[in-house]
TrEMBL record:
Entries under PANTHER family matching the protein: MUDR FAMILY TRANSPOSASE, POLYPROTEIN, PUTATIVE-RELATED
Positions with biased composition (Acidic residues): 12-40
Pfam families given in the database record: DBD_Tnp_Mut (PF03108), MULE (PF10551)
Record-annotated Transposase MuDR plant domain positions: 134-197
Disordered: region residues: 1-46
Recorded superkingdom: Eukaryota
Name listed for the protein in its UniProt record: Transposase
Domain MULE transposase: residue ranges: 333-431
Length: 509
């Protein structure tokens, strides 16, 4: 459909008005000779001198530099606004050409035309409660687009784009052909590089009832900007929470997928694109080693792809302060794994220890594709090679098959001759509950495992037998030294679970 002529004819304004004057001025009052003008009091005013002084006042980028005129300053040097870090006039104030110090000796009548000429129109910043106006500036095209969308959403209106290029954006009301005259034109100004509203006819003259539960302009891009700070503080904030936040602000019940896409865009904006982040990983690890001498990093790569590109598989790292600090900690390591949230469903393996103040002390990390015999074996071998060669270290973990196989593999250096393997009591109780489905029995198992004295352990197990005789057989294949405190011989220093590693996972998420 042909565009309504009003959308272009009414908006055919210059993309870059020259507010400071131009050598190509075609005014009929301009004089073509080079003679000096004479004021009423007989002083001669050199037009070239005025132009030279004015150009000195106006910075190269078109901004206004105001020279200090205070009597406390004992020289006539021009004030360097850029060097002083001043951004210009306050928001909402019109800027006028300000004469430099050399003009103070000139005829005031000759200066009058300059003082009456506004160099830059109003540049008040837009906010969600205000109306647009000509001269408003936005840092980029995306900012003006977002502002118009918010304006339309809150006013229950819609707009259509009639013209869009990298430097020009023109929109009008969707009911423009029905008589609403609302329209807006903005363009990038060469003088300051920002987008500026050059034509605006508003507010709307149409009447729009609230559209529906949703709004066409409340898209994932708008939602991205609205939830960006929330995602920055807590990337694990759920989509339903963000959905309710959008609903409370705009009174629109947008589709769940819009919010999901908005959160996805916000995460990419704050933390970077997933693929690009993995590409940056080698450089990040190199920088980590250069800035923290002694930090150890080891890579494992897969087979090259069809383009002969190296394919990332696993990476292990341990910070130098952690390696040095472990020498002063209890010889006890807790290991566990957790999912990584994002596009690539990989796993984070982590080893933590406990310092003398009973605080969590991170020891080593690894990113792997899955928890398996190979990945856990590689992680434990890296611990032996890069972190500690101390014998007699106690390792506390769950009973993941990959961990059991890795601990029993002599190549990894964690067999019974060099280390002690203990199980997390919380995981033992969870596995027991999956089999028998009784919270009462589960709690009793934890009480039994946490007892310090063998007689108290036996008393708890006797009570467990009385409640359910069949459940005692479940413990037959478990070495009591691996899951109870009473028979541990002190290797686990009273620590019964790997919850400390779980606390670290919460911080990393």
């Amino acid at each position: 459909m042909d565009e309504d002529p009003r959308s272009c004819d009414d908006m055919n304004t210059s993309e870059d008005d020259d507010y400071c004057g131009s050598d190509g001025d075609t005014s009929e009052d301009s004089s073509e000779d080079d003679t000096d003008d004479e004021g009423e009091d007989g002083h001669h005013v050199d037009d070239g001198m005025i132009r030279y002084a004015l150009n000195r006042v106006i910075a190269d980028d078109g901004s206004l530099s105001c020279p200090p005129l205070s009597n406390e300053i004992g020289n006539d040097d021009f004030f360097d606004e850029e060097a002083a870090g001043i951004d210009g006039a306050p928001v909402g104030v019109r800027e006028f050409v300000v004469p430099s110090a050399v003009f103070m000796e000139l005829n005031s009548a000759a200066m009058q035309p300059l003082n009456e000429h506004a160099m830059i129109p109003s540049r008040s910043l837009w906010n969600e409660a205000s109306e647009f106006e000509k001269g408003m500036r936005f840092m980029c095209k995306v900012d003006i687009q977002h502002a118009v969308k918010i304006y339309s959403i809150k006013g229950h209106r819609r707009f259509v784009v009639t013209h869009s290029t990298p430097d020009v954006w023109i929109v009008r009301c969707k009911k423009y052909l029905d008589g609403c005259t609302w329209r807006l034109r903005c363009s990038r100004r060469k003088s300051h590089g920002m987008f500026e509203i050059s034509t605006y006819a508003g507010p709307h003259t149409c009447i729009y009832a609230k559209l529906s539960k949703d709004h066409a302009h409340l898209d994932s891009t708008v939602i991205c900007r609205e939830v960006e700070n929330v995602v920055r503080r807590d990337p694990s904030t759920s989509v339903p929470v963000l959905h309710q936040m959008i609903k409370d602000k705009f009174s629109y019940d947008v589709h769940y997928k819009k919010v999901w896409l908005g959160k996805k865009k916000a995460i990419a904006k704050v933390f970077g694109d997933w693929a690009e982040s993995y590409k940056m990983l080698p450089r990040w690890m190199t920088a980590l080693q250069e800035s923290n001498p002694g930090t150890r990093v080891e890579w494992r790569h897969g087979e090259p792809n069809a383009n002969n590109e190296v394919v990332f598989k696993w990476v292990f790292w341990a910070f130098a302060p952690s390696i040095a600090g472990f020498r002063h900690c209890r010889p006890m390591i807790q290991i566990d794994g957790t999912f990584l949230y994002g596009k690539y469903k990989q796993k984070l393996l982590i080893a933590t220890v406990v310092d003398s103040n009973n605080h969590v002390f991170p020891l080593a990390f690894a990113i792997v594709d899955e928890e398996s015999r190979d990945s856990w074996g590689w992680f434990m071998a890296c611990l032996r090679h890069h972190v500690t060669d101390r014998d007699g270290v106690c390792v506390i973990s769950d009973r993941h098959p990959g961990i059991l196989l890795a601990m029993n593999d002599p190549r990894n250096g964690w067999t019974n001759e060099r280390a002690q393997h203990r199980f997390c009591l919380r995981h033992i109780c969870s596995n027991f509950n999956m089999r028998f489905g009784s919270k009462e029995l589960k709690d009793l198992v934890y009480i039994a495992g946490a007892q310090h004295q063998p007689r108290k352990f036996k008393a708890a197990m006797k009570e467990l037998h009385q409640l359910n005789p069949e459940c005692i057989a479940w413990f037959t294949d478990l070495d009591r030294a691996q899951w109870t405190n009473a028979y541990d011989k002190g290797y686990r220093y009273g620590w019964m679970t790997t919850n400390l590693a779980g606390i670290k996972f919460d911080l990393l998420r």
